[in-house]
Amino acid sequence: MKKMLFIVPALLLSACASPQGAFIEAPAEYGLYVASTNIYFDTQIVFKSEKTGELIKARVEHPDHGAIGYLMASLPPGRYFIYSYSPNPNVSLDVMASNGYFDVQADCFNYGGELDFAVDDKGVPSYTDSSRIMDLEQFPSKYRKLARGRDICAATMGKPNERFAATDIAKLMSL
């Protein structure tokens, strides 16, 4: 019985430490930002909060060991900029751009679309973003299940965030 007392707090602590933990524990205070990317390694993307200037690391993972990477982060509502990304574990590239922002709403699955990163022939990093809410149907179940029964917010780069009610999304697609 004494062992169980130590296990429960550890499980709660690990739930909050996961990328979706804060969103699940306090959805009124956090939104969940999820996007896919062409980064081929398990690395990170760093966001910068417009409001606080805080740098927030989001881990790129490849849950199905494929070429598509997925990132997920619980973020307080507000505007964020892509600050940097790591195309591989040994390199970090700064990519601050005036239109490189996305907005996050609380109690919403904020879908950031597909982020495509590149480096031009002069070594300047850049990215593009395409977003179709329907693409969520192709995401691994680990991510889709977090969107079930929730409002979906289109967190497209450089555009205002648009919220879609969970009931409307359920009519349009299967998560």
What would you say this structure looks like, in words?
The chain is an alpha+beta fold and 175 residues long. 20% of the residues lie in helices and 39% in strands. It has four helices and eleven strands, in the order ααβββββββββαββα. Strands 1, 2, 3, 4, 5, 6, 7, 8, 9, 10 and 11 form an eleven-stranded mixed sheet that branches. Mean pLDDT is 86; it is low at 1-16.
Layout of helices and strands:
Elements: H1 2-17, H2 21-25, E1 31-37, E2 44-49, E3 55-61, E4 69-75, E5 78-88, E6 91-94, E7 101-104, E8 109-119, E9 125-130, H3 141-147, E10 152-154, E11 162-164, H4 166-172
What is the gist of this entry?
With 175 residues, the chain is of the alpha+beta class.
Can you tag this structure with a few keywords?
alpha+beta; single chain
Which percent band covers the strand fraction? 35-45%
Helices and strands, in order, run as HHEEEEEEEEEHEEH
Number-wise, the strands total 11
Report, as a whole number of angstroms, the end-to-end distance.
39 Å
Mean pLDDT: 86
Regions with little confidence, pLDDT below 50 for 5+ residues? 1-16
Helix content: 10-25%
Mind telling me the C-alpha Rg? 17 Å
Main sheet characteristics: 11 strands, mixed
Principal-axis shape: globular
Give the number of helices. Answer: 4
Derived from helix and strand composition plus strand pairing, the structural class reads alpha+beta
